Amino acid sequence: MLQGDTPPWIRVISADANIPIIDALPPTGSAFIARMQGLEMSDTDGVFNQFYENLRLPSYFGWSWNALRDCIEDLNWISTTRYRLIIEDADSILASSPDERRTLFRILSGAAEYWARKPDFPERTKVTFSVLLLCPPEACAEFRKELAED
Hints:
150 residues, alpha/beta, Rossmann fold, 18% strand, globular
C-alpha cells in the first residue's frame, strides 16, 4: 500500500509497476501532489528549482539545503493535510554527486518523520508527508539499497 500515512514515507517504485491508482493517491481528504522530474535535478540548482516550482516555495527561499529543509518542514503556504511528492527518474537525481544526493534524501526522510511526529490536537490537524521515487525497473534494486544505507 502506498498511502503514505504509515512508514516508510519514502518509497522506490518501478516506473513500469502496475499499481492500482487508488494505491498511488493519498487517502480521501485535502491533498497536495507535486510531480517532479529527476532528470532536471542533475545539480543542486536543478534540485532547488524543481522544489521551488513544484512545491510553490515562498520567494524568501534561500536556495540552500538548510532553506529546503526549513521550507518542507513548514509548508504553511499550502493548505492541506497530506503532501505527496512524486519524482520521476529519481535515480538520476544528483547522480554524479553522491554526498549531495544523500543530503537530499536525508532531508526528505527527516521531513517525513517530522510531520509524522507532529501531534494531532483540536487546533491542528494531523499532516502526512510522503515521497514516491519512480525509477527504471533495472535501477530500482540498487536505488533501494542506496537509500537503505543512509
